[in-house]
Every structure is written in C-alpha cells, then in structure tokens.
Amino acid sequence: MPEYIETYLAALEKEITYFYANEPLKTLYIGGGTPSILSSSQIFKILSLFNFSKTTEVTMELNPEQVDEKYLKEIKNAGVNRLSIGCQSFDENILKLIGRKHTPTDVEFVVKTAKNCGFNNISLDFIYGLPEQTLTSFTNDLTRAKELNIQHISLYGLKIDEGCYFYKNPPTNIADEDLQADMYLEAIKTLSDFEHYEISNFAKNNFVSRHNLNYWSNGNYYGFGTAAHGYLNNIRYSNQKNIKNYTENPLQKETEHKLSNQEMLEEEIFLGFRKMSGINTRNINKKFNIDFEKKYSAILTKYLASGHIKKTSCGYSLTNNGILVSNVILSEFID
Hints:
Layout: H1 3-19, E1 27-30, H2 40-47, E2 57-62, H3 69-78, E3 82-88, H4 92-97, H5 104-116, E4 122-128, H6 135-147, E5 152-157, H7 165-168, H8 177-190, E6 195-198, E7 201-203, H9 210-216, E8 229-232, E9 235-239, H10 243-248, E10 253-258, H11 261-272, E11 279-280, H12 281-288, H13 292-295, H14 297-306, E12 309-311, E13 315-318, H15 320-324, H16 326-331
Parallel strand pairs: 1-2, 2-3, 3-4, 4-5
Antiparallel strand pairs: 5-7, 6-7, 8-9, 9-10, 11-13, 12-13
C-alpha cells in the first residue's frame, strides 16, 4: 500500500473528527474515485469514525478488478451493506477503448460473489454514448445486467470535459446527441420492470439510493476528503482538490458559499425536477413564501403545451422528452 495513503487517511480522520457532530447517520457513501484500493481494515477504520446503525444505508464504490471474496466478506462485516460497481459496459473491446482494467467476467464474478457474501443491495453503473457503442450493444448491456438480478442501475451519458483524456485524444465513432437520446429512451423501455425514480437512476422496489435521493431533495450532507462537496446550514462547500494541500491542512475549505434565498429556491427547483416524482409546489410555496404557479406561469404554460412538463397530484415533473432537454428547461427557472 503506497505510503501517501496512510498520510491521506490521517488527514481524513482529522477532518471528520473536527467537523462531524456525531449525530446518527441515515446514509453513508464511500466513493468519489476508487475506494476499493483501500484495505478492508482501512475501510473499517473510516467507518468507525461515524455513528451509524444497521438501518443506515452504507454504500461503497468498487472497481471490479480490485476485490475478491475475502475483501467482500470483510467490508460486509465492517458495516457496508450496499455496493456500487463501476461496470460501464459489458463489451470487452469498448472497455479497452476507454482504458478500463476490468473485464465483463470480473463484473459478473463480483456480483455473484457479493451475493454469496450476504449483499442484497447491488448497483451497476453504465455509460452510454461510448466509442463504438451502438443502440443494440447498449441495450444488450442492460439486459445482461438484469440477468444478474441486481437491485439498482445508474446510467450516465458520455461527456468529454476539458482536461480529461478524451478531450486531448478524441475518440472516433461516438454517439451524437440524437443517438444518445435514443439510447436513453430505449433504456427506459428495457428497464421497465425497475422504478425510474431519478433521471439517471433505476431501482427495484425499496432499493432506491437513499443517499442520492437526499441530494435531489436538497437535504444537508457532509463531504469529507479531497475534492468532496458538502451542504450544511445553507452553505455549499468544497474541499481542496490537490491531495498534497488537503493532507497538509484538511480543515481548510477550497470554496464556501452561503446561498441567498433566491439561490435556495432555484436549487429546490432544479434538483427536485431530477426526481421523476418532480417538485412539490405546496412545499415550495410554504418554504419560500411564494406562489409558484404565478411566479413561473409563463415557463409552465410553455412546457406544458410542448409536452416537456406534466402536472402531478402535488406539483410538476418532467416527461421523458423533457428529460432530454432538461438543461434548457431548468435554466429558465434561474434568474
């Protein structure tokens, strides 16, 4: 194990001990990279810093090639009860093109082994719009995932951000926006036996990610570790992105911003619209002392007529076609 990891974990412990108020946690998520490079004893040490119970949803992200049966048993005993596995695709050639080190067989092995170790809440992550990926191959990925009898699937469209490998080395034969849209809509059909509860997330009954739902419900949460983000007492903050700077002073935030009342309202709207249940206008009116339908009447009229937004029993939600242009729609709610 590289020496810097122990230094990093010492800084992490210092940050958690300083900021965490020891209140019982409803959810705990170990992610944001490759936490499975940590030993099971290191995971146990991190978890021991928090106050949680058997009812707490404790998720850990895994890279399929980094774990075996012994490791899975040990993190289960440490308190992890939900796994999020970075599958991305079941096409071995595509995995090689995007620089992944695992194989489809690795994913299947981890899922089956995790079940044997007592895990009954397993999620797979997929990316659509990958190099050489077709509508058929993507649909086959999802069908293969369903055959593993997992409880949760997350889908993310390929985005090439400035600074990433693909930005400087653009791949060939990637899906355009129209094909990505077709992939997304086909995924909704393929996963019709799952609950589509958030734009990117699908779950079997009672297996929604409670941790992620807290984000979309605009709830408070801590963020610990390098580049982590948190939201407490109307303040959004981010930790230092540079590992060296973080380990030298883990208590120093990189950014802190106290939201204005208008910003809180806007976040309530665009985060809420990510949920398929949409926004609850009665709650928004009470929380922000506004008349939502009057304040946003022009936007609502426009997108109700176009079929991108629909009325619900307690407010409004995006339709499937609305999801495809959600960034455009939601930008209109921001002053």
